[in-house]
Amino acid sequence: MAAATGALTALAALAGLPSPSLFAALVVGLAVALRGPASELPPPAALTGQAVLGVALGSYVRLATLTEAARHWAPVLGVTLATLALSLGAGVLVARLGRVDLPTASLGMIAGGASGIVAMSHELGADDRLVAIMQYLRVLVIVVLTPILYGLLGGGGHAHGPHGGGGGGPGPVLAWLALILVSAGVGVPAARRARIPAGTLLGPMLVSGVITVTGILGGARVPGLVQGVAFAVIGLQVGLRFTPESVRRAGRLLPLILGGTLALILACGLLALALAPLAGVSRVDAYLATTPGGLYAVLATALGGGANTTFILAVQTLRLLAMVLAAPVLARRLAAFGRRRASPVA
């Protein structure tokens, strides 16, 4: 599985797919699951993959990002809450029309943090196979549409400084190793003691965010290769759970999921029209800031076109973190609501 995942990852990267190792591992795991008896990754491997992903998500936060968001806190907060509400609305529609349980449909339609949502969905009682398909279908659509719509909207030509994500490599080996070990070593036990849902991912994410913002380790980040391995572990974890029936079910739901995704993109585009005058940015920058996910594709487009990448990254990053943090609470509430609706007494 490791050899096949490595080969497919290289092909997916050449094709320009986002998170190529996760896509490749998902396909490999699916192929193995459909050909043989049910199997799963060893629990330590799956937990390590989630913890490393949490550290990587937390390292997105930068002081420049927080400063830019603070300058426009009201519209940024409004857009984040509105996007969360739109995501939940789309999830409710998919649940009703496709006869999918509410936690699965809602987590699948949450706009942002696809890898984090997929990693925690099984622990939250959702069908992580459907969640993965819904999340990454949305990311693929955004990857394809973003450069096209950016050009149609007249993007480019207004250069800005580099984005707040911090350029350069991940830093010295000892620095990024310390970031991972400290964030995971402190975050996972603390999250478990506090009984935080999906604490294996959220605990390291919060600790990593604090370390990154304070600059204790000099801006260390998780290297791309290490992130790729973590993505691959999560992809295999999800792919190995597929069955022939789940594949057929996902195929039947594809038109509905695609329709919900396009409706969500359109609704977020309307949010951009409101955000632009409130934050004092162009409509093109506001569109890139409100695109529901696809962070890497959005940043690539923004950097290539000279957009206001600091503002775009501020909105996208804070929304990503908000979605990942809100997902466990929402999943538990929606599951309880679904049980009450199904009760004969209710």
Number of strands: 0
Radius of gyration: 19 Å
Q: How many helices in DSSP terms?
A: 15
Broad shape: globular
Structure commentary:
Helix content is 76%, strand content 0%. It is mostly helical and 346 residues long. The radius of gyration is 19 Å and the shape is globular. The relative contact order is 0.20. Residues 157-167 have low confidence and may be disordered.
SSE diagram, text form:
Layout: H1 2-14, H2 20-35, H3 43-58, H4 63-71, H5 73-98, H6 102-109, H7 114-121, H8 128-152, H9 173-193, H10 199-214, H11 224-239, H12 244-279, H13 283-290, H14 295-305, H15 309-342
Helix pairs in contact: 1-2, 2-11, 3-7, 3-9, 3-10, 3-11, 4-15, 5-6, 5-12, 6-8, 6-15, 7-8, 7-15, 8-12, 9-10, 12-13, 13-15, 14-15
Features:
346 residues; 76% helix; single chain; mainly alpha; 15 helices
Describe, in short, the structure shown.
The chain is an all-alpha fold and 346 residues long.
